[in-house]
UniProtKB/TrEMBL annotation:
One of its GO terms (biological process) is DNA integration. Residues 1-100 form the Integrase catalytic domain. InterPro entries: Integrase_cat-core (IPR001584), RNaseH-like_sf (IPR012337), RNaseH_sf (IPR036397), Transposase-Integrase (IPR051917), Transposase_IS30-like (IPR053392), Transposase_IS30_CS (IPR001598). One of its GO terms (cellular component) is cytosol. GO terms for molecular function: DNA binding; transposase activity. Required for the transposition of the insertion element. This is Integrase catalytic domain-containing protein. NCBIfam families: transpos_IS30. Belongs to the transposase IS30 family.
């Protein structure tokens, strides 16, 4: 599923080498891209939280190539279907579904 363009707002990246193509991504998507200051993990809190959750399954330094796609997908499923306090104890899928339905209703209402 493609996320509607008007629902994509920004992307926050750290300063790692893997993020070197941020300028091209900005050109391709028009997203506002923010680069965190070095040694400032609090600037991307949800990412750090997710890293902590992943460490429950894969300790730091784990070679993910040693784990099959099925195992990685299973862990992703567990984390993606986990209710989040910040979302009113909904899963991310439930919160997104609610947002998309709300957006659809607002679009219908403005065309009437």
């Amino acid at each position: 599923m493609d996320l509607a363009t008007h629902l994509r707002r920004s992307l926050t990246w750290d300063q790692g080498a893997e993020m070197a193509q941020h300028a091209q991504l900005w050109i391709d998507t028009g997203l506002d891209i923010y680069l965190c200051d070095p040694q400032s993990s609090w600037q991307r809190g949800s990412n750090e939280n997710t890293n902590g959750l992943l460490r429950q399954y894969f300790p730091k330094g784990t070679d993910l190539n040693e784990h099959g796609a099925e195992e990685l997908s299973a862990v992703a499923h567990v984390l993606n279907t986990r209710p989040r306090k910040t979302l009113g104890w909904q899963t991310s899928a439930e919160a997104l579904d609610r947002l998309l339905k709300q957006d659809m209703m607002e679009r219908v209402a403005t065309t009437c």
